[in-house]
Give the backbone structure.
Amino acid sequence: MKKFLSTLAAAVLCVACLVSCGDSSSNADSSSKAASSSASVAESSSAADSSSEADSSNAEDSSKAEESSNADSSSANDAKSQAELTIDVSDINANYDMLEKGLQSEEFVPKNGKIIEGESVEITDGMTAFQLLTKVCESKNIKVESKNTDYGMYVSGINNVSEGSCGKASGWMFKVNGKDPGVGADACKLQAGDKVEFFYICDYNKYYANQTTTEATTQAAA
């Protein structure tokens, strides 16, 4: 009888041990699953943060690219709305002895032959060569004289140097992009990027003779 009871007690103890081990294993599995779930949540959160940072970085790059594009566009538009003015008196320097004594000064005729050289000016739609000249000269306190003729507005004097100041056949002329526009300065409408030059000639006859010779030579070469 004692032997039976002892065997029964050992069996009960074994069952209890198995149950206890099962619970411990279950708890361990649950704990492992919970840890795994926590790690997954952390990874998801990290991925979301990385995605958010990437989106923010892309948005910032896009904004900078747009600003750069706008700046380039603005710069391009500014460049397109400019014209250039030069006032040349180099022919006077080549015939300086013919110039009126009162004008033989750098104040009126600079030694480099340029009263204004390559001055970039913003132009408005419909602005003429004459308006460009007066706008620049007013800003620099340079006197401009003009008069109406049958051919339009004629610029008769710039910086106190007038027609006849350097010989009987002397005076002012102008060209746009190196060519005679064929109209008066007040009728010559400018385009963006135009280069306007007012220049003084000491002898119209000699100038036109040279122009004719140059044109004939060009045509013959063609």
Remarks:
- The longest helix spans residues 2-80.
- The helical segments are 2-80, 90-94, 129-139, 204-221.
- The longest strand covers residues 114-122.
- The domain at 82-221 is CATH 2.170.130.30 (Ferric Hydroxamate Uptake Protein; Chain A, domain 1).
